[in-house]
Amino acid sequence: MEHIQGAEAPAVAPGTLPDFPAFVASRGRQLLRTAFLLTGGDAHLAEDLVQEALGRVFVKWRRISRMDNPSGYAQTILVNTFLSHRRRRSSGERVTDVLPDVAVADPDPALRLTLLRALGELSEQDRAVLVLRFWEDRSVEETAAAMRLSSVAVRSRSSRALARMRDKLGTGFTDKEVLRHVG
Predict the structure, then answer these.
(1) For residue 60, which of 41, 73, 44 has the smallest C-alpha distance?
(2) Containing H/E element for 161?
(3) 7: which DSSP letter?
(4) Distance between CA 61 and CA 66 in Å, rounded?
(5) Which long-range contacts (CB under 8 A, 24 or more apart) does 145-153 make?
(6) What is the chain's mean pLDDT, rounded?
(7) Between the CA atoms of 162, 165, 169 and 170, what dihedral angle is there, to the nearest 10 degrees?
(8) DSSP 3-state assignment of 15?
(9) What is the C-alpha to C-alpha distance for residues 26 and 5, in angstroms, rounded to an integer?
(10) Taking Cα atoms as reference points, which of 76, 79, 173, 67 lies closest to residue 118?
(11) Residue with the larger pLDDT of the pair 99 and 113
């Protein structure tokens, strides 16, 4: 996935069809971060999900590239890919609390691991709601549309999942701080 971790893509002139590699270069890193959070810290599964989602985007790229928000569409495809992967249960891999050695700019790596572990213990739907609402900073309505849920279900899942996170982490964090430390 070398192409995902590249620099920002050049700006696309108005009225022209943006090319797919430029889209991947500009949005791939964000998709990978979201997938990392959705998978509870499983970097390899996150990469697989992003590749699968980008493959689906590529197939429909001519239509998607003309949309008002192709990035939002790609994000929705990623979330749906994650949720369908979990439903299939075809993978016998399990996330562990051992992460690969990587340089960390975070001042508190232990807190990051604790947050990732707590996020990973949530159900896939609850985790997706929290990631979309607080990491992606989407509204309740946008999250509901992306996950094909009602706004009430998103609010309920969000509240329940945050309560579980607070039980595990204590009450010293605001909701946005929790996921800001993970990403």
Answers:
(1) 73
(2) helix 151-169
(3) P
(4) 8
(5) 145/76, 146/75, 146/76, 146/79, 146/80, 147/79, 147/83
(6) 79
(7) 40
(8) coil
(9) 9
(10) 173
(11) 113
pTM over 0.90: no
pLDDT score for 140: 92
What is the percent of the chain where pLDDT is above 90? 33
At 44-66, the pLDDT tens digits run: 999 999 999 999 999 999 898 88
| Residue with tokens 């604790």, as numbered in its chain | 114
Dihedral Cα 139, 123, 39, 172, nearest 10 deg: 70
Contact indicator for 39, 81 with CB cutoff of 8 Å: no
Token representation of residue 77: 């495809």
Q: Quick one: DSSP state of residue 19? A: -
Token look-up 């399990």 returns 94
What residue has token string 């959070």?
37
